Amino acid sequence: MSKLLSLIIPTYNMEALLPRCLDSLLVDSALQRLEAIVVNDGSKDGSLAVANRYKERFPDTVTVIDKPNGNYGSTINAALPEAQGKYVKVLDSDDWFNSDALVNFLDALEKIDADFIVTHFTIIHPGGKKEFAKYNLYGKEPYEYGKVYDLGYVLGDGYIRFFMMHSITYRTDLLRKNGYIQTEGISYSDTEWDTYPMFYAKDVVFLNLNLYQYNMDREGQTMDPKVFNRSIAQQEKITSQILAFLEKNGLDNLDSGRQLFLRQYYLNRLRLICKCHLFDIDRKDFNPEHFTELESQYQEVCKRFNLGEIKLYPENKIIRCNAMKYWHKHHKRWPAWFEAFNRSVNSIMKTIYMLLFR
User: Which residues are paired to 117 by β-bridges?
Assistant: First the structure.
């Protein structure tokens, strides 16, 4: 039976949370159009048993792949060849969908023919506070919902700097025909899911649906700042992978809008890694020799692909000091007292921003 949408659900030790994820999908009006592929990545708890119980109850909707642990990318690589849906999306097993929005999403997909679909999502922060996330700027929404746009046009208008996995759905054949493979054995490879198709997808449509419910209110969540900063080596590895993809594919054959977007995207990615080293990780963990070598590599990439200059200003936009210039001059991080002051200002300005614009 053909399906409209395949959902890849990577699962590792999510026995307690997987039922919430699957229950959000298995509504009557979605069952015949939806395929939920649960990929058990060598879980040590009862995740596989939970998945198999749902498969028994919903044999035409739920598929289970059981495999040895290979980390996030391996689950995508295992499921993508098996996906039956016209479109494919990833749903982490500690997250869930708004069920009503899912039905509306499937209704919309039946009328759409596009490589790339973008929807809104909710971020559930620690403590349960919710943040509604969509691709707008201070309330402006430049794209008509439901209209198919040339992706090069959208990427070239300077409005969007990046897409997140939670918002993205792809045409399944788009990924297969372009040999999409995600890096295995390491976390944070969803960065590749957000990046590689930008080189070859032709068109995009935005839908006014708050579909994905992104749960950051969980201890050990990979995007928890503490976990993220401890995982800087994995972040560097994924960055090296997407740089290798850039090296292999280049930018010269792409339309001007796509070139502009990808140059900005890669520059922002390099900036993120530098920010982790110079702003975020504990001072005692900062290795000047390693960062010197890493930053030299990044500067070479910037020159070779004309990405621009890596600048590192505080997020608060009040303290106008470039940490990269300080690094080049003094070969060290800012003084401890200045870092503490900067973090305080960042926190205050973020609170004000959230009150005004969210």
Answer: 169, 205
pLDDT(221) > 90? no
Strand runs labelled E in the chain: 3-11, 34-41, 62-67, 85-90, 96-97, 116-124, 130-133, 148-150, 168-171, 203-215
In angstroms, the CA 323 to CA 282 distance is 16
Distance between CA atoms of 324 and 47, rounded to whole angstroms?
Answer: 45
pLDDT in tens, 287-308: 999 999 999 999 999 999 999 9
CA distances from 171 to 88, 89, 116, 168, 200 (A): 6, 9, 6, 10, 12
Q: What is the rounded CA–CA span in Å between residue 278 and residue 272?
A: 10
Contacts 24+ apart (CB under 8 A), 141-146: 143/206, 144/206, 145/206, 145/207, 145/208, 146/108, 146/112, 146/205, 146/206, 146/207, 146/208
Alpha carbon 63 to its chain's center:
24
**Residue type present at position 250:** G
Phi then psi dihedrals of residue 133, to 5 deg: -115, 125
Q: Is the pLDDT of residue 340 over 60?
A: yes
Distance CA 355, CA 352 (A): 5
Q: CA 254 → CA 142, 174, 248, 319, distances in Å?
A: 23, 17, 13, 37
- Give Cα separations from 228 to 45, 187, 278, 341 (angstroms): 24, 10, 14, 22
Q: What share of the chain is helix, strand, coil (3-state, %, to 5)?
A: 45, 20, 35
Residue 338 has pLDDT above 80, yes or no: yes
What pTM was estimated for this model as a whole?
A: 0.90
- Residue 162: Cβ-neighbour burial (10 angstroms; 0-12, 13-18, 19+): middle
Quickly name the fold that domain 3-215 has.
Answer: Spore Coat Polysaccharide Biosynthesis Protein SpsA; Chain A (3.90.550)
